[in-house]
Amino acid sequence: MAEEEEESAKQLLGKAREVYDKRFSEQASRNASFAQGTIQDQISALTLSIQESPVHHLDELLKLLNYCSKKSARVKHLALLAFQDLLLNDLLPERPLKSFQSRTRPSTREDLSNRHLLYAYFESELKKAVFKFFEIVRLESLEGVPHMRTSAIGIAYNVLVDRPEGERLLLGIIVNKIGDPERKVATKAIYSLQKLLEKHPAMKSIVLSQVEELVFRKNVKRRTQYYAITFMNQVQFSESDIVLSRSMINTYLTLFNKLTVDADEIDLDVYESKLVASILVGVNRAFPYSNAEVDSLYDTSQFEVLFRVSHARSFRSSTQAFALLQQVAAARESMSDRFHRALYAKLSSPELREAKNPSSFLNIVYKAMKNDTKIPRVQAFAKRLLQVALNSSPGFASGSLSILSKGVLESRAGTLQSFINLPEAENEIESFVDVEMDDDEGGRDPNSGKIPMLEDPYDPSSRDPLHCRAEKSSLWELCVLNQHFHPTVQKYAEELLVKEKSVQCLGNPLLDYSLLAFLDRFVYKKPKRHVSVSLHERREASEDGRPLANSASFRKLAEAGEVAEDDKFYLRYFEDRWSRQPEEDDDVDLASADEDLAEEEEIDRAFEEAMGEELMMANGSDDESSLDDDAFKVGLLRRSLKL
After folding, report:
1. How far is residue 527 CA from its own chain's centroid?
2. What separation in angstroms does the CA of 331 have from each of 291, 292, 522?
3. How far apart, in whole angstroms, are the C-alpha atoms of residue 285 and residue 288?
4. Residue 638 pLDDT greater than 50, yes or no
5. What distance lies between CA 382 and its chain's CA centroid?
6. Residue 376 pLDDT > 50, yes or no?
7. 272-292: average pLDDT
8. Mean pLDDT across the chain, nearest whole number?
9. How far apart are CA 615 and CA 91, in angstroms?
10. Where are any strands of DSSP class E within 15-153?
11. In this structure, what are the phi and psi dihedrals at residue 248, rounded to the nearest 5 degrees?
């Protein structure tokens, strides 16, 4: 019965096509003339016919689908893009397509007219054509040319983000390309998934489940797992994602156990790998949203592995391990001492000085000092932190003093003052010992001419901060930092040592007082307000609020005495120039610096627009002579704009 109805609907569609061709014969002849041209003309003619009436041009739709299977890469690419535009703009509704059988169920057959049968048959054939198209896109994603694979990812993403048809098939195409051997293709897949979750947050669990299947697939490469875990730990959770966050933690820990269970026999560098660090990042980000107890998520064997990772040479891996162990130590008092011993040892490691961005590690040290209830251990951390700061960059020293201020001075009243004012070895008792007389030396003590010295009871080589006797020693490191070459470090140390008040540090000292920030102050041009987009997050354009060091506004601030401590160097540097400026004719007018910069940016924008128009006029030609002509035109254009 269903087959007879489908055949009847097919005949109805054929009759409707005959009536349509007779009524619109001029359009049919016009499209036929276009079909005699080039391949691009033929594809355009088919597209135009389908757009005029999709129901009456089902044959043209299938013919365009055949073009998508051609061997020629150019023809295939043009047909795929044309078919994609038709699906998004003309063919696919805002709901999934239905088959003919679902439209003609026995309970609804009596109410179906010939018109209903015709449209049900067309929708069924359209659904078959769409899934054939998706299969072609899947095969396209397996091509040897990276450009074709990237194009397939783009088509799958565009359809998936706008229409609900074939969601799992299209999502599988994108997820599988995370393991592509070409880095650009894998990056494109990850970026597409991130954009998909931004527009459809409800698909979070579906996407993550498919990525999880990729991670645990047999014979999957370690590089593919790393890319997949990197995408997973960038997913943002909300307070309602309790079940999902717990599921992700279980996924991370399962993979973590799989990697580290036989690490000694299989891979000695597994603890140093970026994959382990990414796994720990994911656990740390998902744990606050899980609302679960630590004992329900981890077992004792995992703690042992985490401590091994915390001692790894890879600073990123060890930092993430410490962040996870800090949560465990807060819940388990028995693990607190071991955690502080490991953190105390890592604080003096050379990897900390070589780290590009140790802010995450310093944040862990700050929380450990602030929440610790044992004052001698806090004092031991303070001394070691300042000892490391003595041999580190000004940014690290400023950050260490800020941690000391917030973690000790502000949270424990009187602790820092007593630590600073405590004299060296105040608890040592002077003892007198009888000296044995030697007849050969005439009864003289050989050490009688030496001045007795009191030893510092502090033991810097002790592994346990509770037994290094830091509470019996003063914080003499502050006196050395008070003589630091950097003015900001001097100021912070003076505020803690002399004024005994908290440090007011705005911003990130690790970045604000770095060498790059120092050299940026000598750039006599304001940065362009450009927003750069990275793989994992969007960064907004940031501009330093301070005026340029050679500008007139900076000079006015200097005359008013409102220059910051670290800007005094620039003040001394430019004072000589300002004193000689009225006598020199070739100096730059600092008052008009902003106008010159604005004019230069306007020239740059005009040049970019004109260059874009010139490149569009070239029509994408690959001929070398045309490229030389374009370069010559661009050169002339730039010189004319500069004039």
Report:
1. 23
2. 13, 11, 49
3. 7
4. no
5. 32
6. yes
7. 85
8. 77
9. 34
10. none
11. -70, -35
Asked whether 415 and 378 are in contact (CB, 8 A), the reply is: yes
Least confident range of 159-173, 184-198, 322-336, 376-390: 322-336
Calpha distance 342→322 (Å, rounded): 9
The predicted pLDDT at position 619 comes to 44
Could you give phi then psi for residue 232, rounded to 5 degrees?
A: -65, -40
The yes-or-no verdict on residue 536 having pLDDT over 60 is: no
Asked if residue 196 lies in contact with residue 207, where contact means CB atoms within 8 angstroms, the answer is yes
CA distance 25 to 17: 12
For residue 6, CA distances in Å to 15, 105, 120, 396 come to 14, 12, 9, 76
What is the pLDDT, as a whole number, of residue 274?
Answer: 85
Task: Report the predicted TM-score, pTM, of the whole model to 2 decimal places.
Answer: 0.73
In whole angstroms, what is the distance from residue 322 CA to residue 340 CA? Answer: 10
Which residues sit opposite 533 in a β-bridge?
538
Q: Encode pLDDT of 283-293 as tens digits.
A: 989 888 887 77
The two structure tokens encoding residue 524: 């006599």
Closest CA to 567 of 580, 582, 551: 551
The single-letter code of the amino acid at 273 is: S
Query: What interhelical angle do 552-559 and 568-580 show, nearest 10?
Result: 110
How far is it, in rounded angstroms, from Cα 293 to Cα 302? 15
* Distance set, CA 485 to CA 356, 393, 476 (Å): 22, 11, 17
User: How far lies 370's CA from each of 347, 367, 425, in Å?
Assistant: 16, 5, 26
**Distance, CA of 38 to CA of 584 (rounded, Å):** 69
Q: What is the mean pLDDT of residues 509-518?
A: 82
- Tell which wins on pLDDT, 556 or 326: 326
